[in-house]
Design goal:
By secondary structure, the chain is mostly beta strands. 0% of the residues lie in helices and 54% in strands.
């Protein structure tokens, strides 16, 4: 896939209590001229779900921002607004240009 200016893509599989894992696919869009955060799309796919529905995907779209946080205030976080639904809000620690770590609601 060709790189698109102002678009960053992240993906990975995280543990799940009642399925084989949750595949996260996150696309962050920034203004290509200023680098300011604009929109995001997060697709969370529940793999090998125990439900009769099989795999289930949940897509969230909204806006995102960059913030500082953590115990010493030096952690760079990417925050997703949840598309207007607080239960879908997410925060990630930016570990580098190519890696994010999902944080819990307390930013740990």
């Amino acid at each position: 896939m060709a790189d698109t200016p102002g678009v960053a893509r992240y993906w990975g599989v995280l543990p799940c209590a009642d399925c084989a894992g949750i595949r996260h696919e996150l696309v962050l869009v920034q203004d290509p001229n200023t680098g300011e955060p604009q929109t995001y799309e997060l697709v969370e796919t529940y793999l090998g779900s125990m439900s009769t529905d099989g795999e289930r995907a949940v897509t969230t779209k909204g806006t995102w921002s960059i913030a500082k946080g953590g115990a010493n205030g030096a952690m760079t976080m990417v925050r997703l607004d949840g598309g207007g639904k607080p239960e879908f809000a997410r925060s990630f620690e930016r570990l580098g240009e190519t890696e994010l770590r999902l944080l819990d609601r307390s930013q740990n």
